[in-house]
Write a structure and sequence with these properties.
It is built from 11 helices and no strands. By secondary structure, the protein is mainly alpha-helical.
Length: 206
């Protein structure tokens, strides 16, 4: 084997494992083992501090990319701090393929599908969570989520093809202006006092 081929092979290996090496260096620099990092992340997760847990799960997932539990928890975190819900769904759908996965993975997989308007698939995932969980956990309102999916399906039957022609983020201050603009929605948002006043006038009419 020539020196040129050997150098090329070494370069490929170094690029492949660079991310892993950097993660190991970071762990050593802060004096934390992977077990300690995982415990910190899990503590955040169980306290529903998903944003705080994200970077630790990302670090661990770079070392153990096929770990179902890490995929479940990292995917869940992405639901709360990423605009791309489909990205979360990729990790969650991978996690639920494992027979021994935490049943909550099905709840959050349902949540990701729910946010993507895939109501029937979301409902089925919620039902699987109900069947697999060992006890009821009030943190996860699965019964309400199933009802919301049913309502969502009913609402969608009133529409045909929906095409998004323009999608943009706006500030809170501009929301009311766009809502009331006659060229867009042309609606009106009533504050509580004004709503009650109008309702009282309506009741007094013969």
């Amino acid at each position: 084997m020539s020196d040129k081929v050997i150098k090329k092979y070494i370069l490929i290996l170094s690029q492949k494992y660079l991310g892993v090496i950097l993660c190991l260096i970071t762990s050593l620099a802060f004096g934390q083992t992977n077990d300690e990092i995982r415990k910190t992340a899990d503590d955040f997760f169980e306290s529903e501090k998903y944003i705080e847990a994200t970077k630790d799960y990302l670090h661990l997932l770079s070392l153990f990319p096929t770990d179902p539990d890490l995929n479940f928890k990292y995917g869940t975190c992405l639901l709360y701090n990423s605009r791309d819900k489909n990205k979360a769904l990729r990790y969650l759908s991978f996690a639920i393929r494992n027979d021994d996965i935490d049943p909550r993975a099905f709840f959050f997989n349902g949540r990701a599908l729910h946010l993507d308007y895939q109501f029937e698939k979301a409902k089925q995932s919620y039902i699987l969570y109900q069947e697999k969980r060992s006890r009821k956990d009030d943190r996860y309102k699965v019964e309400l989520a199933i009802k919301m999916c049913d309502n969502g399906k009913k609402l969608l039957t009133n529409f045909t093809d929906i095409i998004v022609t323009n999608k943009q983020e706006i500030g809170k201050d501009n929301f009311y202006k766009i809502y009331s603009d006659s060229k867009t929605i042309g609606g009106e948002i009533l504050v509580v006092e004004k709503f009650l006043h109008n309702y009282s006038n309506l009741k007094e009419q013969p």
